[in-house]
Amino acid sequence: MSLLNVNRGVFSYPIGEMILDDVSYEINKGELISILGPNGAGKTTLLKCTMGLLGWQGGSSTLNGTDIRKLTPRELFSVVAYVPQAKADTPNYYTEEMVLLGRGAHIGFFRQPTEKDRKIAYSCMEKLGIGHLAGKRCSEISGGELQMVLIARALASEPEVIVLDEPESNLDFKNQLMVMGTLKNLTRENVAILFNTHFPAHALQYSTKALMLSKRGKAIFGKVGDVITEENIKKFFGVNAVINEIDTDGGAIRNVVPISLL
Amino acid sequence: MLTKRSNSISRNFKLRTYIILFVLPILAMLFSLFMGRMVIPVPVIISSALSKIGFGSAAEVAIEKVLWNIRFPRILLASLAGIGLSLAGLSFQSLFANPLATPDTLGVASGASFGACLGILMGFSLRGIQVAALIFGLAAVSLTWICGKQKGRGTTAIVLSGIIIGSLFNALVSLVKYVADTETQLPSITYWLMGSMSGKGYSTLALGSPVIVLGAVILFLLRWRLNILPLSDDEAKASGTDIRKLRIAVIVVATALTASCVSMCGQIGWVGLIVPHICRMALGNSHEKLVPSSVSIGATFLVIVDTLSRTISTAEIPISVLTALVGAPFFIFLMRKNGGWTL
Q: For A125-151, what is each residue's pLDDT tens digit?
């Protein structure tokens, strides 16, 4: 039985065409799965439907075999954590206060965080190398640092799956490497990672499996090397691209270079 | 290492802050007991207060009467109203993720005022007036919410909608005034609408205080959970909180606080905007600090303003006039100094 399973999911917004049409995929412990697709294909919608923030119109998501519609928010989100895009209008909490909010599913409705909750929050910050940000406000740190704070918040809920919405867009090279490296490290601790991205190269370099969405709501899912091919990129994105290998000290890395419009 | 240091910093900070927050309202109350047409020296106040719990001797009868039958209930009323309006403002700001959301700007105060006016017109008891204020306050905030709801965290739509709903209920208040009896009802409605603490005894307090105390206790218990409110919808849901339950709880509590204040002492503007922002500027945006500090600063602020309203001139100045006169410049100063308002 897989950890999180999407079975024949169908979704469309009230006005407009089918966004997701019969999408199925699964996530297991320690996997890193990337979701790719052109603008407007419904990558974010797929993430939201997968974890119940939007409701499937057909099909279902199951967590450890249970339909997530049967779970309380507390049960669901103590296993699944969500990292939204780091935006400027994030409430201006101190970073440690923001990370502590990740403990929400573990603290009773009328209760306060205990010393243990605070320790977990701090240790998540230290683990991601952002302990030095404690005592700063979210408005005082960079976009990359804010993204790391939001990942730390997700981690503070001690989840089995972390779902991230374009975690590395709007970041510079260094921050991209930091964020992707962090995600890869987390999979070594058996956390499953699901994220959507505009960078096929990141998917190839870091993820184990990939899901590619088309404009018509169809999806293909499989091993990353089987999904991200020159042919599929042509079909799904409408561009000619070349996938090449670059030799580095750390081994060969595959890169995707868009060449021309069809 | 780092963790330990930042932990201990925040703990020291906490202790000092809490002492200040505890002492401020007590000083304000002493100041208010002391001030007035009859100036009563602080030692007399203290010995009189001690005599109440069995130490020392009481003061002269006249002084006792001024202190405990006139000034003290009024001070309690001002503290409770300050606490209620500040907490309501704080809750609304966080609920709508909007620094401008307050009982006034959302039309809640106008709705509650209409309910209370209607109650006076119909000759309801104090309790009936309070219930009417609560019902129309809830109606107003619901209408504002429905009209101003939009995708994302739009800050203007909700306040605009609040202004529309507020003026709708103000028009209804005018209608009530128009049909009210000019000899008996109209003066009392008009005077009461301006907001006043005067001439209210322990019976008014007994009416409003349970709601305000209960509301404050609920918000105090929820103080950490309130931090979820300003997050985006998806983040709030994904925090593992039943966000619908939380929002409904907070909106009912905040409206009940507003309605209780309105039915005890009329419309007093500005408090719900100024006090939470003073606390935010001083202590940051975590409600763990904002809830207790809004209680303390809210009580302090309104006790001082009310004391001024009855001592500046021989005739009493309506308190809402003073909160605006004191509040507006002070707030502009704070806003410019800190470079804008944020949550």
A: 999 999 999 999 998 999 999 999 999
A99 and A115 co-located in one domain: yes
Tens digits of residue pLDDT in A72-90: 999 999 999 999 988 877 8
CATH topology assigned to domain B2-338: ABC transporter involved in vitamin B12 uptake, BtuC (1.10.3470)
| A230 Cα to chain B: minimum distance (Å) | 35
CB proximity B9 to A under 8 Å: yes
| CA dist., res. B211 & res. B197, Å (int) | 18
To which H or E segment does residue A210 belong? strand A209-213
CA dist B299 and B283 (Å) reads 17
Which residues of A are less than 8 Å from B10 in CB distance? 135
Q: Does A97 touch chain B (CB under 8 A)?
A: yes
A101, B228: Cβ pair inside 8 Å?
yes
For residue A65, is it left (φ>0), alpha (ψ between -120 and 50) or beta? Answer: left
Whether A45 and A62 map to the same domain: the answer is: yes
Strands A192-196 and A32-36: parallel
Distance, CA of B87 to CA of B82 (rounded, Å): 8
Examine residue A177 and state whether it is found in any structural domain, yes or no.
no
- B234 contacts in A (CB within 8 Å)? 48, 53, 82, 84
Same domain, A31 and A53: yes
- Residue A179 domain-assigned? no
Say what the ipTM of the complex is.
Answer: 0.90
Query: Which residues form the domain of A22?
Result: 1-79+163-170+190-262
CB atoms closer than 10 angstroms to residue B50: 13
